Amino acid sequence: MHEKPAQQRLEVIPLTLAQANAFVAKFHRHHGPVRFHRFSIGVVDEANVLRGVAIVARPVARQRDDGRTAEVGRVATDGCPNACSKLLAACWRTARAMGFLRLGTYTLIEEPGTSLKAAGWRLVYSTKGDSSGWARHSRPGRSTANTGPKKLYEAPRQRR
User: For residues 27 and 78, is the Cβ–Cβ distance under 8 A?
Assistant: First the structure.
């Protein structure tokens, strides 16, 4: 009989934005580094190897930027099992400790959200997407990739 390898023990650590962005640049499937953050964290394995990162920032949507809502802007892992779920749960614990009342994140419409669901997050709604990207009369020429439909997930609310 084949035995399953023992699950790696992962530890959450603080990171600088530069450290998190370097990992994102190497491992994220469809986004690059970010410019600003509220905080960044990582997970390391028993050999102290960085296996994943998460970057939490202000919400992208102005309607959600109320000062008490934060947004996970990037999560990237090297494929280590459970790293993504561990990061998402740690992001919510950290955000709550900082006084945030809500924490959300967006996924591409085709992504299943498995790690989000495993960490207890719930699907709030799906966006229509915006084919014009960031370009507006007030800010012409700016564009970003992945302007199609997305799903918004939120961390579980605190029970009072």
Answer: yes
Mean pLDDT by groups of 10 residues along the chain of 160 residues: 66 97 85 84 97 94 92 93 94 96 91 87 85 52 64 80
The beta-carbon contacts of 75-80 under 8 Å, at least 24 apart in sequence, are 75/105, 75/115, 76/23, 76/24, 76/26, 76/27, 76/28, 76/52, 77/27, 77/43, 77/51, 77/52, 77/53, 78/27, 78/51, 78/52, 80/8, 80/10, 80/43, 80/45, 80/51, 80/52
How buried is residue 21: exposed, middle or buried, by Cβ count under 10 Å (0-12/13-18/19+)?
buried
Separation between Cα atoms, residue 153 and residue 71, nearest integer Å:
10
Model pLDDT for residues 27-54, shown as the tens digit of each residue: 876 666 778 899 999 999 999 999 999 9
pLDDT in tens, 54-71: 999 999 889 999 999 999
pTM: 0.82
